[in-house]
Each structure stands twice: as structure tokens, then as C-alpha cells.
Design goal:
Largest sheet: 6 strands, mixed
Mean pLDDT: 90
Strand content: 5-15%
CATH topology of the largest domain: Rossmann fold
Number of helices: 21
Radius of gyration: 33 Å
Strand order of the largest sheet: 8-9-10-6-11-14
CATH class of the largest domain: Alpha Beta
CATH architecture of the largest domain: 3-Layer(aba) Sandwich
CATH superfamily of the largest domain: P-loop containing nucleotide triphosphate hydrolases
Number of domains: 3
Structural class: alpha/beta
Shape: elongated
Low-confidence stretches: none
Helix content: 55-70%
């Protein structure tokens, strides 16, 4: 917490200084406006053209102060977000408050493990990890949590996360630039549609007109105003109307382009700043360097290009400002020029934009894992093997309160299964989820909640939480059968880690017992390892028939002073104590 408290103090001090600068600039702008108004009054009163000099100077100074203030406002917003980020991290570490998006939109009840292991949704692993501010980052983080990586990819991810862990201010700045963006739509799809859609081009004739007409109009105005050539005033009027009609002819096409970016063009500036931060950072890790290289295309960088796109859209959007549009288009055919520049940008850089945003998303996802590592310095990066083995020492569930969490060891070799028995609430399901979630983390390249670990990054298949599906007209039991069928089919093609919790609950006890034993016998013939939790102690007896492959482990509960006590420590053998009847009596159910 000390680094966050130190940064919080630093950014709160910066806030005071930035607010002071803003007040100074606002005062100067007011002063310039008063001088400008005075100069205009004197110009009209004395009709002396020399007053154009202070008017011009005031306008230039005002534009400079406007841009300075705009930059300062951005700095203030980012600084405020950095204050908020550090407060959130402090509250998270103190009270486990998680104000970040929980990834509920990525929930898939049919996924082999994410629904069963609470990967998405409120208080999920995603919720715990997420420090992304863009759609691309959130999508990338979800992809990391659902994708299977090779050992080489895992090692690359580990090294990238380790380097980013030490770059606290870099990580926080990436998040702060766009933190208040609440866009949840699929920006990828919007951009993809825009890139693929055909846009009307600007003809050579229109290009020529848009260049020559403003020049002639300005020359005519100079001759009329300064040399009193009367008919030049008529030429100015006709050209002004001609220019407006020319732009009006392209109004629908311009509006169509604007509508594409209606909900996201304001965020393009933020994306540009985030990309610039990534481009300017110094990396040592090969993966991060390769990602960084994707942001440079020939002579221009991704951040510069996205900023150009943002400016093009903003400039085009002024067509909806009637007074400005009439003035700018009547004289310069402004929106014709801006429309042409947007089409040129699309033709030159459109094919790269999704790649740039994918890089941004991947950096955000890796930052999230690095933040997880930073907040949990005691967590370890597992070593990796190709032998279908997993070994954990003092493994804990990473989402549980550290003070109350109890660690247990896990050791499974090729084709081995643990038959896990235990009374109600003794910790079986939590133990299975602890293994599953830590395997997900370790198989990505993130650190895990264990003292030591060596894992094989196997595909994870889980059956722990299923539900009746009214929309599919299927029962709980049928949903279980479908999940078990999927598991056996996947096992025909690759080695897996299997986690099963009290399977076949949707049928009677005899069928359940016989079915469970049948499933176990089939699994031990496959190329897999895993754990199967059960309340049925008779199921555990089959370990005697397969002592090399089946290992009995259990969680016990004790009744001490008429209270049920759990220690959540894993023991060898089959569970001996039962607690259902005791609890029912204790709660006056029976």
C-alpha cells in the first residue's frame, strides 16, 4: 500500500499546482478578450486600419491560450484519474472493494471452465484482475483468460508481466488517460464496418474547384476592400453562394462518415495518447518490443495517425455548427477539404487501425496481470513441464481473504486422479476452484497463490456448476451429460486437467454412484489428470482397484463444544465424519 499512498500524495500536490495554472490562463484569456473588444470598438469608431494589428495579435494570443488551456484541462483530468486510481487500489487492498468492470458480458455458461470457476461476473477473477479502460483491453483480458497458450508463449507472457510489474506509473498512466470512458460497445465492429465500407471519392474537378475558388474569392475581397473595385464585391457574393451549394451537394456523404464515429470519435484522442505512451516507453522484453514495433508504420506512428483521424472527424463534425459551417464553407469549401483528407487517411491507414488497437488492448491486459503481481508480491511464477504433472505447495484460492485462507498441497502425475471426499462445507469445492483458477493464471503466465509450483499447461475441463436451461428445454441431468460428453470428446484429442464436483446430481443415488464410478473408470484410461469430489464414500472404494491411478484425499469436520469446526486442511484417505444431520438439528430443521 505504501507505493499507492506515496503516489496519491504526489498527484494531490500536482492537482493544486495544475488548478493554479488553469486559473492564471483563464484570467489571461479574459484580459485578451477585453483588449480585443476594445480594439474592435476603436476600429469602428475611428475607421483606422491600424487597429487590425492589435486585433490580429489578440486573436493569435487567444488561440495560443485556448490550446494551452485545452492541454491543461487534459492534464488535470488525467491527474484526477491518477488520484482516483491510487485511492481505488488502497481501498481494494484494505477492504477488497472492486469498482472495475466485472466482465459479466463475457459470461458463457457453455465454456469448459469459465462459468464453473467464476472467471467472469461479480467478484470473479476477471473482476479482481481488470485494470482496463478500453473495449480492446477488456476483450483482450477476457481472451487471455479463455485461451490456451503454449509453453513458449507462457514464458514470454511471464517475462512481459514481470517487466510491467515494475512500471507502476506507466501502467497507471495508461489507465488514467481513458479511465472515465464508459463505452461498452464493440468498437472493433464499428471500425471494421467503416474500413470495409466503400466511400465516395472526391472527383478531380471538385478538387480543382475547392482549391481555386477560395483563392479567387479572397483575391476579389482584397481588391474590393482595399482598392474599392466595386464589381469585385459581386464576385465575392456569387462565389460565396457557389461554394455553399458545392458543399451542400456532399452534405449527406459527410454526415454518413460523421455518424460512423458519432459515439467514439471523442475517445480517439485518448487512444492516441495511450498509444503514444506505449511508443515512448523503453522495454527490454521481446514480446513488449514486438508489440511496440507494430505501432510504427513507415514514417508515421500509430498515435500520430489516430490523432490525425480524430482531428479529421472533429473538423468534419463542425458542419453541424451552422454559423461556422456557413462562414468556413462559403469562403474555403472547408468540409470538402476535410472530407478528402479523411478519405485519404482511410485509404492509407485504415487497414492498420484494428492492429493498433489490438496492441493497445494486449498491453492493457498485460498491465492488469502486472498489477495483480504488484499487489501480491508473495505469489510465485510456476515452472513448466511437458509431463502432464502439476505440483503446488501451500496452494490457496487467490480471491479469498488472505488472513482466513488455508493452503494445501497438490501433486498429480500422469493419469492420476484424486478422489476427494468430505462433509458439507468442508472445503471441497473451494479446493477444486483454487486449483482451477491458479491453473488458469499459471497457464497464462501470471503469478499464482502458492509457495512453489510446477505445472503442465493442460487444457482445463470442469463440471461444477450447471443449471437447467429452459430456453434449450433441457434438464439439469441432461446438461450434466452434455458436459461429460464434451469432456470425453476433448480427451480423445489432447491431454487435459479434469475437475468434477459431485457429478450426476440430477439422478437417484444408485444411478449416481454407478454412473460416477463408470465415468472415473473411463477417465483413468484417457490421457488426463484431475480431481473428482464426491459425497458418496462408496465411490472412493474403487481406489483399491486402481492404486496407481486413484488417490483418496479428504476434508474433515469436527464437533467441538457442540459447534461444527472446519480446519480446511487436506488429509489422506476417505472422509469419516458427517455433518448434515448435526446441522439440520442445530438449525431446528429436524
Amino acid at each position: 500500500m505504501d507505493p499507492y499512498a506515496s503516489l496519491l500524495l504526489q498527484f494531490e500536490k500536482s492537482k493544486t499546482e495544475l488548478n493554479k495554472k488553469e486559473r492564471t490562463i483563464i484570467t489571461m484569456r479574459v484580459g485578451i478578450v477585453l483588449i480585443l473588444i476594445l480594439s474592435l470598438i476603436l476600429l469602428f469608431k475611428f475607421e483606422n486600419k491600424l487597429f487590425f494589428v492589435p486585433i490580429g495579435v489578440c486573436i493569435l494570443i487567444f488561440i495560443y491560450l485556448y490550446k494551452k488551456h485545452k492541454t491543461l484541462v487534459t492534464e488535470i483530468a488525467i491527474n484526477s484519474n491518477l488520484i482516483l486510481i491510487n485511492r481505488e487500489e488502497i481501498n481494494f487492498l484494505k477492504n477488497n472493494e472492486m469498482p472495475w468492470d466485472n466482465g459479466n458480458s463475457f459470461t458463457d455458461t457453455h465454456h469448459p471452465y469459465t462459468y464453473d470457476l467464476d472467471i467472469f461476473g461479480k467478484n470473479s477473477l476477471y473482476h479482481y484482475l481488470n485494470r482496463c479502460s478500453t473495449y480492446f483491453g477488456m476483450h483482450s483480458l477476457a481472451n487471455y483468460l479463455t485461451k490456451k497458450f503454449t509453453i513458449n508463449e507462457i514464458l514470454q507472457n511471464q517475462n512481459a508481466i514481470k517487466e510491467l510489474k515494475e512500471k507502476l506509473q506507466f501502467r497507471q498512466y495508461i489507465l488514467a488517460v481513458n479511465k472515465n470512458n464508459n463505452i461498452k460497445q464493440n468498437i472493433n465492429k464499428i471500425l471494421q464496418n467503416w474500413i470495409e465500407a466503400e466511400s465516395s471519392s472526391i472527383s478531380k474537378i471538385l478538387n480543382t474547384i475547392s482549391t481555386i475558388s477560395p483563392i479567387i474569392l479572397i483575391l476579389a475581397f482584397v481588391l474590393y476592400y482595399f482598392f474599392n473595385i466595386a464589381y469585385m464585391g459581386n464576385i465575392c457574393t456569387y462565389l460565396f453562394l457557389f461554394n455553399l451549394l458545392t458543399v451542400f451537394g456532399k452534405f449527406k456523404l459527410i454526415q454518413k462518415e460523421i455518424q460512423t464515429f458519432e459515439k467514439i470519435h471523442l475517445e480517439l484522442n485518448q487512444f492516441s495518447s495511450m498509444l503514444l505512451t506505449i511508443q515512448n516507453e523503453s522495454f527490454n522484453n521481446d514480446k513488449l518490443i514486438q508489440l511496440q514495433k507494430k505501432l510504427q508504420i513507415d514514417e508515421i506512428s500509430a498515435s500520430q495517425s489516430i490523432l490525425q483521424l480524430s482531428n479529421r472527424i472533429s473538423n468534419l463534425d463542425t458542419i453541424n455548427n451552422l454559423p461556422a459551417a456557413l462562414f468556413m464553407n462559403g469562403i474555403f469549401l472547408y468540409h470538402i477539404h476535410e472530407f478528402r483528407k479523411l478519405l485519404e487517411w482511410k485509404s492509407k491507414y485504415g487497414k492498420y487501425i484494428l492492429t493498433w488497437f489490438e496492441v493497445l488492448g494486449e498491453i492493457e491486459a498485460l498491465n492488469s496481470f502486472a498489477n495483480f503481481s504488484f499487489n501480491n508480491p508473495e505469489y510465485v511464477y510456476p515452472s513448466l513441464n511437458n509431463n502432464n504433472e502439476i505440483n503446488f505447495k501451500n496452494l490457496k484460492h487467490p480471491l479469498l481473504n488472505k488472513k482466513n485462507s488455508v493452503g494445501n498441497d497438490v501433486s498429480l502425475h500422469k493419469n492420476q486422479f484424486i478422489l476427494l471426499s468430505g462433509s458439507n462445507m468442508s472445503g471441497k469445492s473451494t479446493y477444486l476452484r483454487a486449483i482451477g483458477i491458479n491453473m488458469v493464471l499459471g497457464s497464462i503466465g501470471a503469478p499464482i497463490c502458492s509457495d512453489e509450483a510446477n505445472i503442465c499447461p493442460l487444457r482445463i475441463l470442469v463440471s461444477m456448476r450447471l443449471a437447467d436451461s429452459l430456453s434449450d428445454s433441457e434438464s439439469y441431468f441432461f446438461a450434466e451429460l452434455k458436459r461429460l460428453k464434451m469432456i470425453t470428446e476433448v480427451l480423445d484429442n489432447e491431454a487435459c486437467l479434469i475437475l468434477l464436483d459431485e457429478i450426476l446430481r440430477g439422478t437417484n443415488s444408485d444411478d449416481k454412484r454407478n454412473g460416477t464410478i463408470g465415468v472415473i473408470k473411463k477417465l483413468i484410461k484417457k490421457d488426463c489428470i484431475g480431481l473428482i469430489a464426491t459425497h458418496d464414500l462408496e465411490v472412493c472404494q474403487i481406489a483399491d482397484e486402481h492404486p496407481e491411478q486413484l488417490i483418496n484425499k479428504c476434508f474433515e469436520a469436527e464437533i467441538i463444544n457442540d459447534e461444527l469446526v472446519f480446519d480446511y486442511k487436506l488429509r489422506d484417505g476417505i472422509c469419516k465424519n458427517k455433518n448434515a444431520t448435526f446441522l439440520m438439528k442445530k438449525m431446528n430443521v429436524i
